[in-house]
Design a protein that fits this description.
The chain is α/β, with parallel strands linked by helices. The protein has 14 helices and 32 strands. A hairpin with a 5-residue loop joins strand 22 and strand 23.
Length: about 600
């Protein structure tokens, strides 16, 4: 019989976030809920149970009140429940959490271990890949479809440009995207019956490992402090939209006053032309990514820009790392953004990407070179294999950082947001090399140097046969629109646009402005635009100089992705819509009546 385990996490409601000033950890004594992505994992497990006659077990690690989440999961259809409950587990980071879970899971000989893609309180997505590495299993992160065929899995996983088709052998660890399944509806009476079911409680001493491996003591990362970020209140200037021509003319006038129509002048830090020598313990490694067309991503250039600054201050070199020769072709570009060495890792198994292959290959050379730190993009791929590398080497990893700094002792300080950006914590690592994944779009590009040159080296590494196989990569992006990352002007759409026809009209408007387009989660859930254009709590963060929200309600789970937008224009026929609380300019109007006039006004202004 198929055996399935689902790991869940109980998280505080975002608006109820509370912190312990002494331990720098989240207090979980207030209202708590099962993380939204974990609900999808439970739902998928229940669905597979019906299809394949599986035995299902739900497991959580947390304080006594986390028992409530297990009861809820049983009410949803899970068969058994396990609670890792011990003060020794308190304050665990992702690796310490993964260690405890992996020790128990390894005993169960599960075919499938499922988790949510990430939890909304931390948004790292690291525990799943770390468990997979610790138990030696295949992994599929961000699964949006999953099918079991004999002992193999066929799946679609989310990518930065669309989705990948792949297959993997069981046992495997799956992290579930929102769209993999709908949450289970609890039947009447199921909750009362679930409350009577036994729950296995497991203490740290029963896991057969040193207690120092768990909790705060076993965590390789630590939080220096917690900063609550106050969102500045915006005063919205409402414009009478009864006359569309007059309203749009006034809108453009206000935007000119706010300098929202002028390209931003970036004072970019110049890249030096001198090539730096490598020094053990001082080199900065930047992992490079390419898109489906083989081009170096903007996020990679952002990481190189910051890596160049760090390497100069540390007195070491910056090394750009890639696989299978893909980055060597771009050595000139990488050098212009500061790379002193372009290092290609080569092996036939690396010709097609797998998370286990990438992690093993980089792990093989870390001990030899002893870099100061390793920076990866917090992309779908970086989040896929980066945590696996950290688990393999026992390293601390800060995920989804928005900046990288150095302290007075030249230690890495990774600034990590949580709860939709309402909180930022400087995170340190006890282990070397230090690791972080960094969000694309949050670091400034440097001014490249045409004179800078880099040494190009190829290193052959030995890696194990892959546990998974990439079958095909798909792009779902509209290439006639400006890419969202780094866009100066972004047009956002909500469900108020009505449907695909409305989306097409807004897309035409965006093309007129030379703008990118994004959407709220409800829009991407409807399938009107690809998920890769989603902005907000479970999507991307953007920092345009001008954001135009069309038919956007303005729920916090969207506007938290707009914190760095310079000027916001909102068009909505509901004067009480929350989006006006974030907007600088508001039009209480039917967007279809205003948009043609606004498009004409922008066309005249942009000539």
């Amino acid at each position: 019989m198929l055996k399935i385990a689902v790991c869940i996490k109980q998280i505080p409601l975002i608006e109820e976030a509370n912190f312990d000033a002494t331990t720098k950890t989240i207090k979980r004594d207030g209202p708590n809920v099962i993380s939204a992505y974990d609900l999808r994992a439970i739902s998928l497990a229940v669905e597979l149970k019906k299809l394949h006659g599986a035995e299902t077990t739900v497991i959580t690690m947390g304080p006594p009140q986390a028992r409530g989440a297990l009861v809820d999961a049983i009410a949803m259809g899970m068969d058994h429940a396990v609670h890792l409950e011990d003060r020794a587990f308190a304050g665990a980071d992702t690796l310490a959490t993964a260690r405890a879970l992996a020790l128990w899971l390894a005993r169960g000989h599960f075919d499938l271990i499922m988790l949510g893609k990430y939890s909304l309180d931390a948004e790292t997505g690291q525990v799943g890949p770390e468990i997979a590495e610790l138990i030696g299993a295949a992994q599929i992160t961000g699964a949006r479809k999953l099918e079991i065929v004999g002992s193999m899995l066929r799946a679609e996983r989310e990518s930065d440009e669309g989705f990948d088709e792949l297959e993997a052998a069981m046992p495997a660890v799956i992290t579930c995207a929102e769209r993999v399944a709908q949450p289970v509806k609890v039947k009447p009476g199921a909750a009362d019956e679930a409350a009577t079911r036994p729950i296995l409680v497991v203490r740290a001493s029963e896991l057969g490992s040193d207690a120092k491996e768990f909790g705060l003591t076993g965590s390789p990362t630590w939080v220096q402090e917690v900063r609550v970020v106050e969102t500045p209140k915006t005063e919205c200037k409402f414009i009478d939209a009864a006359d569309a021509e007059r309203a749009t003319a006034e809108t453009v006038s206000v935007l000119e006053t706010l300098d929202a129509l002028k390209p931003r002048v970036h004072k970019r830090r110049p890249i030096g032309s001198a090539r730096r020598a490598s020094k053990r313990g001082r080199d900065v490694w930047v992992v490079c990514e390419t898109d489906l067309e083989g081009r170096i991503t903007r996020g990679t250039l952002e990481l190189l820009s910051r890596g160049d600054e760090l390497a100069t201050r540390l007195g070491g070199a910056m090394v750009a790392i890639g696989f299978d020769g893909a980055v060597a072709r771009h050595a000139g570009l990488l050098a212009s953004f500061g790379a002193d060495t372009v290092l290609t890792l080569e092996h036939p198994a690396l010709n097609s990407y797998t998370p286990e292959g990438a992690a093993e290959a980089v792990a093989k050379i870390v001990s030899t070179h002893a870099p100061w730190g390793i920076l990866l993009g917090a992309t779908e791929r970086g989040r896929d294999w980066g945590p696996r590398l950290a688990a393999r080497l026992g390293l601390g990893l800060t995920g989804d950082a928005i900046d990288i700094e150095l302290d007075s002792e030249n230690r890495m300080v990774a600034l990590k947001p949580a709860f939709g950006g309402n909180i930022v914590a400087p995170i340190y690592s006890k282990t070397f090399p230090q690791m972080a994944t960094v969000r694309p779009g949050v670091l400034e590009l440097a001014a490249p140097s045409e004179a800078k040159q880099a040494e190009v080296r190829t290193v052959r590494v030995e890696v194990s046969p892959p546990k998974s196989r990439l079958l095909k990569a798909h792009s779902t992006l509209d290439l006639t629109l400006v890419p969202l990352e780094g866009a100066e002007i972004v047009v956002g759409i909500g469900t108020g646009v009505g449907g695909p026809e409305g989306v097409a009209k807004v897309a035409a408007f965006a093309r007129t402005l030379g703008a990118a387009m994004c959407a709220t989660r409800r829009v991407t859930d409807q399938g009107w635009v690809p998920r890769q254009l989603q902005v907000g709590l479970t999507g991307k963060s953007i920092d345009p100089r001008l954001y135009i929200a069309i038919g956007v309600r303005g729920a916090p789970n969207h506007t938290c992705g707009l914190k760095r937008a310079q000027t916001v224009v909102a068009i909505n026929n509901d004067a009480d819509a929350l989006i006006f609380e974030r907007a600088n300019v508001g039009l209480d109007a039917d967007w279809e009546k205003v948009l043609p006039a606004l498009q004409d006004a922008f066309q005249r202004r942009l000539r």
